[in-house]
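Next comes one such specimen:
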Amino acid sequence: MRFAVLLNFTLASTLALATVLSHAADNPYAALAGVYHGEVYNGADLDPVVTTFTLEPSGRLVGKYVVGEENGEYNGHLSNVVFGDTHTITLEWTDKFGEGFAVMEFADDFESFAGEWSSKDSTNPLPWNGKK
């Protein structure tokens, strides 16, 4: 009985992984997924930021970020990713300070990006970058 349960679990896990990999292989933006270390303009200066993009099993790209500042770290979420062209995305960011928009342009190999963010009320974009 244990063997049958273990076999079923293993088969189910293998099928789930195959589905995720299939979606990733079909999705030309799977190369964006990963962890990027960089800087973001925050307050009055550039602070370190870790930006993470994840490809969900459905094929949707989502993200999160962690900003290190003088008073500690804070987290944010990235959503509503829209692809402008092969290497450019626009998205929405949300954290404890508010929400807004960002545009990120990725290098040809998707190993880095240069971007800008602004709050919903601002017309003055500020830098945000990262490298895998």
